[in-house]
Design a protein that fits this description.
Length: 189
């Protein structure tokens, strides 16, 4: 493993703690609005583990995920590998071996996510957008971010990607109140 040259400073430590706490609060608030109380309370608790928290404090910038900075310095993110394996609201959690695959097909395939985790992923993306965009945030921000990452979406199950895209489009066009009401009626269970 490559050792980091980036130090943890008190300012970065406090900044990361504030970012994670604000993000969790916003996700919890969104989850509560649609009836996902348990997921709201438990969201991203692994970010407080030493594996994730210290990396976040070391690479904190306040404008983007510290995992990207770790990835740039080391070539991978140990924090992200730890996080995605413990949090079902990330589509990367839902990847498995393709046992039925023919020769030449992908050895790993995306698995369709249960609706309640897609909803938590929606809340996660909204909260991350609000935290990182700050005053520039509007309800179209999470959709624009999603659409910029189309290469990554090849690893998301097509039905999961379509559902998330529909919800993000609804958020952009109709706002939080209507989107959350739709989710509460149709998807959170």
């Amino acid at each position: 493993m490559k050792k980091s040259k980036t130090p943890v400073t008190p300012e970065k430590f406090i900044g990361h703690l504030h970012t994670v706490t604000r993000h969790r609060y916003l996700v919890m608030k969104g989850c509560f609005r649609v009836g996902l109380y348990r997921q709201g309370l438990l969201h991203d608790l692994s970010k407080f583990s030493p594996t994730e928290f210290m990396v976040g404090a070391r690479y904190w910038q306040g404008t983007r995920s510290p995992n990207n900075a770790e990835r740039e310095e080391k070539g991978y993110s140990a924090s992200w590998l730890h996080h995605k394996g413990r949090n079902r609201h990330h589509f990367e959690y839902w990847v498995d071996y393709n046992l039925r695959g023919e020769l030449g097909e992908d050895p790993v395939i995306p698995v369709k996510m249960p609706g309640r985790y897609v909803v938590e992923m929606l809340m996660d993306r909204i909260a991350a957008s609000k935290v990182y965009a700050g005053d520039k945030y509007d309800d179209s921000y999470p959709l624009r971010y999603f659409e910029q990452g189309t290469k990554v979406m090849q690893f998301m199950h097509p039905e999961t990607a379509a559902l998330l895209h529909m919800l993000l489009r609804m958020l952009a066009e109709e706002g939080e109140d209507k989107t959350f009401a739709y989710v509460r009626r149709h998807l959170h269970k």
